[in-house]
Amino acid sequence: MTPSGQVPATEVVKEDPGPSLSVLITYHDEGKMLTECIDSLLAGAIRPSEIVVYDDHSSRAANSFVPQGFPVRVVRGNSNVGPSRARNHLLSTATSDYVHFHDADDWFAPGWCETIRQHLEKARPDLVVTEVASIDAEGVEAMTVLNLTAVTP
């Protein structure tokens, strides 16, 4: 770990020999929601190869909200550049075969990483598109965004 609390790029964790997967998260003052986002990703039995968070010059530094127990690399911007440029920067620092972009205020569905990594290993696709769902305050799915149920691999 560097003095600024960031995990160096050389500390990438690979948990299986299949295709590697980077989860790239944009962050701007979401605070505790970043912790919940990463916790939801790490709750499964299979984890990504690396997690990289781009802190878009927040007043509440992302490092303060990264859960312990898995190396998460945090890159902090010198100025607020917005999510598109933040994603471009994340993409340039990713070290895996595949990348997934995620926002700090969104959770991962249970088993998301397992499902994605199994599909990557089996099919080695050029692109994977996953469903997005909106969950209400009671935890009930309010709507699906893409309606991918009719799409087959």
Description:
The radius of gyration is 15 Å and the shape is globular. Helices cover 22% and strands 20% of the residues. With 153 residues, the chain is α/β, with parallel strands linked by helices. The strands form 2 sheets. A 4-stranded parallel sheet has the order 3-2-1-4, with helices on one face. A two-stranded antiparallel sheet has the order 5-6. It has helices spanning 32-42, 83-93, 112-123; strands at 21-27, 50-55, 72-76, 98-103, 133-135, 141-144. Residues 1-14 have low confidence and may be disordered. It is built from 3 helices and 6 strands.
Widest β-sheet, arrangement of strands:
3-2-1-4
Using the CA coordinates, give the radius of gyration.
Answer: 15 Å
CA distance, first residue to last residue = 39 Å
Form type: globular
Q: Which class of secondary structure composition applies to the elements?
A: alpha/beta
Low-confidence stretches: 1-14
Strand content: 15-25%
Number of strands: 6
Oligomeric form of this entry?
A: single chain
| Average pLDDT over all residues | 86
Taking the sheet with the most strands, its summary is: 4 strands, parallel
- Percent range for helical residues? 10-25%
Count of helix runs: 3
Order of helices and strands: EHEEHEHEE
